Amino acid sequence: MKELVTADGMRQIEKHAMEKLQLSDAILMERAALFSAAVLEKELKKRGRKKHARILVLCGVGNNGGDGLALARILYEHGYGVFVVLLGDRKKQTELNKKQQQILESLQIKIGDTIRTDIEYDGIVDAMLGIGITRGLSGTFAEAVETVNQMDAFKLAIDIPTGIHADLGLCQTVAFQADATATFGCIKTGLLLAEGRYASGRKYLGSCGMTYPGGQSGQMIYFMPEKKDIKKALRRQPGGNKGTFGKLAVIAGSEKTPGAALLCTKAAFATGCGYIRLMTAEENKKLVLSVPEVVFQPRQEEEIVPMLQFASCLAIGPGIGTSEETKLFLQAVLRELVKSGKQLPVVLDADALNLLAADESLWKLTAESGAAVICTPHMAEFARLAHVTVEQIRENRLQLAGQFAQEKNCILVLKDATTIVAAPDGRICILPVGNDGMAVAGSGDVLTGVILGLLAQGMDAPEAATCGVYLHGMAGDLAAGLHTEYGVMAGDIAECLMKNQNKKA
């Protein structure tokens, strides 16, 4: 797992580097510049650009701008044509920034205050504002960003693209659109969320000698899983049978929405589940029986107890509807789950979440069951669950997700372009996986099935949720490669799960 930080967390890392490691801010600046130069040269080489390439370096008056000025010197020493623009109020210029400016001037490198548009640049570097910005761009900085965004050149952001919120990834007005970002110490959460995920391009992380002191007590801790973490988690027990790989009970589908149930069960099988009973509307019996791997069970109250006795994990919600009858049935299931004392892991999705949002007493039943509960809402569903607006979630998603997971004692899978998995212990995984083609009806049902398949095989709830989102995203990328992002359907993602599993993630 790669640990992530907010802007405040990064300031703690820098403080630790200077106070405990005795690294001066000048040394850190030089290392940041050297790393950024290496990233730029690597990317330009990919594009066949020669060392005499022309590079525009946009700098602000803070220490992020100082990184850019130091980078300009290094590029000049390496033989590049360097054009430097210094923007911002010179009265606010930091001492380190001034020193770097003086060094450039001693080398006869001109520093302008406007962008020359008559030059065809090979590369453009953004070192304007860094991680401290919390509001939208305006004035000179907005104009500069809008100008260079239209230029056909490789674009590198230093630490974070100007205009992107370092914690939330939000862009309130305009943001530098980087092809790559060279960031330092730790990856900032804003590079993975909302507009920041796309504005930052490829992410290059340089430690610059800053060792991370670890999360602070009482604070939420942010992580991003790596491919090796997923591979390690997906070790299938050898010599097993269908019982070994889990007995899954799924309550899904209605007369009007049978497809959700089938997508969910198909994905669970594709992820390795051994045995599935599907409890659904009687009208869906013929459709279910056309899928020989799935065992049909009618959605009747007398069937609840034997279903719970059979199951090693349970899913409720995809396509069940939100009628009063469905609510009473959900209530009956949860009550029997409490009575059984079996503490089955439960995934609550789609309509089950809408019913929970409308009736707080259902939450009490989930708590009484003692089950490990995974909730998988998209942004609108989470807004209803948490009694907030979608816009409020966008502006404070990490905090709200963490609070909800702690208050409800559940694993929250908040689905979006970048999905968040929040656990009750304060740990939050950020998963920038998948693509826009996955924004299609039924994709969430497939994700539920993936998580269920992993739960059924004995994976604990936080790990199943995290691995499930990762596998779902990888399958979505494979499907987009086969069908383009415009042509992906939920069934394609389910099909590609099996191909991805064969590749071991």
In quaternary terms, these chains amount to: single chain
User: Strand portion, in percent?
Assistant: 15-25%
Total domain modules: 2
Total DSSP helices:
18
Structural class: alpha/beta
- In total, how many beta strands? 19
CATH class of the largest domain: Alpha Beta
Fill in the CATH topology of the largest domain: UDP-N-acetylmuramoyl-L-alanine:D-glutamate ligase
Structure description:
The protein is α/β, with parallel strands linked by helices and 505 residues long. The protein folds into 2 domains: 2-219, Rossmann fold; 237-502, UDP-N-acetylmuramoyl-L-alanine:D-glutamate ligase (3-Layer(aba) Sandwich). 44% of the residues lie in helices and 16% in strands. It has helices spanning 7-19, 25-46, 63-77, 95-106, 139-149, 194-199, 227-233, 259-270, 285-289, 304-310, 324-340, 351-358, 361-369, 379-386, 390-408, 443-456, 461-483, 490-502, and strands at 2-5, 54-59, 81-86, 111-112, 123-127, 154-158, 180-184, 187-188, 202-206, 221-224, 247-251, 275-280, 294-298, 313-316, 346-348, 373-375, 411-414, 419-422, 427-431. The strands form 2 sheets. Strands 8-1-10-19-18-17-16-15-14-11-12-13 form a 12-stranded mixed sheet, sandwiched between helices. Strands 4-3-2-5-6-7-9 form a 7-stranded parallel sheet. The model has no long low-confidence stretch (mean pLDDT 93).
